[in-house]
Amino acid sequence: MSQMVKLPGHHHPVVIARPDFPGKCDECRHAFYEMHYSCEICWDIWHKKCMPTSSEINHPCHPNHALKLLTDGPPDYSDGKCQICRAVLNNFVYHCSTCNFSLDVPCAKSPGCISIDESKCHNHPLNLMARQVSFVCNVCGTCGERNPYVCLACSFMAHKDCVNLPHIIIINRHDHRISHTYSLGPGTKICGICRQNIDWIYGAYSCMKCPAILFHSKCATNPQVCDGEELEGVPEEEEDEPMFKVIGENVINHVKHPSHNLTLSEDGVVCDASIRCQLCYGLVYSDKFFSCMECDYILHETCAFLPSRMRHCLYSFPISLVDSNRYFNCKACKRYSTGHRYTYHRSRERIEELDLRCASVNWSCDHDCHPHTLFLTTTDHDTCGVCKSRSYVLRCVECKFNLCYKCASYPKKVMHRCDDHHLVLSFGDKKQHGTHWCTVCEAKINLKKWFYVCEECGIVGHIDCVIGEFSNMKPILCSTAKDYGVVRNSGVTRPHCRSCSRRCLLPFIYRIYAYYFCSFGCVIPYAKRYFDQSIYLCF
Hints:
By secondary structure, the chain is mainly beta. The protein is 8% helix and 29% strand. Among the domains are: 54 residues, no CATH class; 48 residues, no CATH class; 53 residues, Wheat Germ Agglutinin (Isolectin 2), domain 1 (2-Layer Sandwich); 61 residues, no CATH class; 55 residues, Wheat Germ Agglutinin (Isolectin 2), domain 1 (2-Layer Sandwich); 54 residues, no CATH class. Strand 38 and strand 39 form a beta hairpin. Keywords: Repeat.
């Protein structure tokens, strides 16, 4: 039988018990997995670290007065937070009423690091000033409200989290390593991530190879940007071999098509809807492309120059180029695609994938729809100024315009069966009035929003109607034995969708045996219900 002990935090004797059943601590509300305190009368349980063992303590962060235990939470006049870790206080509080100083039990039991003899940010020892005091951190240049580490001789102050910032790191916004410096020198400095001013008096990260490239300390060490690994003393990785070799002017040999050389076409040719890139399986349209001199192999210029491994602004770790026959949903634009993609294994069950068009749009973008350069300043979702969806957006720091990856990657010119000429992407005309009709779906179209237009005939079309959901998927050939996949909707009549019974209007549709489907919303539920699972997992 366990021995009962009387502790000041509870009015009944408690025992040390084993975690025989799942439960949560009545103090911090977190689960417990080790020995804990338990009351056999009221069935309360606590982590050992959360249960106070003394009614009064002396703490090095508050040496002038003793701290007394309160068991009903912090007093009303306090801010309700621990003065060291800033966690919200629960029932057990060590408090000094004279100074209005409060600690939670874990901080009271473990004083932490009061003095740091050696740190990465300063040459002298640093001491914790555990009190409310406004300061500007000399390491990151941002304001703090309490508990700085200080060197009084140098008037140096730093956040606890900044004391040992890594000296050399690699981030997803720059190709080279960057290092921390404590003075940038006078002049106007702009952070390469958030695009805001950097106060040159305080610390920041800079690139030795690119002197104009600078980053706020907080921006560069954000987990969305950097993996946090200290690279000081670590040899630089060898660069991956490029996936192509330059043979001559506008002529390359690519590892995905090594038997023949490819030549660049850059004269603004608008290809029809049968010409596809063999890496991303996207339609070529008016993009520059490499074509094989001896066969029909074609690559987008942007796809041909992509590396086998890269750092992208949406990932803090490198992502790798892979090929697969299954479809995937792009992390950036949410479009479905097949073919090559960049992948990152976040966990055994979760794989994040990025299509090649979005991979080529990294952290900055010059787009014809806006006069200023757009930047990915954060990976928090925001509202696109064009389609109004919430997603990753590229921002204009001058006029607060947002553009999502899907809208940023629409082709500028396309070919469609509805017209003999190419259709040009229009960014909307606020002065347009009157009623206009989409030539594909024959529904009304708002010309104040983005649309496609024939500049010779004047016909217009919704973007979704002109491009469709399956345009980034490799179509199957009608002569193959495969009974399912994406096919061109090029017949004399438009088939009915098996699921919704409406006509299939889009340029590419999905076929299962003799049935046709107009969208993913129609094909996936139907395939799951009536057909073998492999039909909707592979293309």
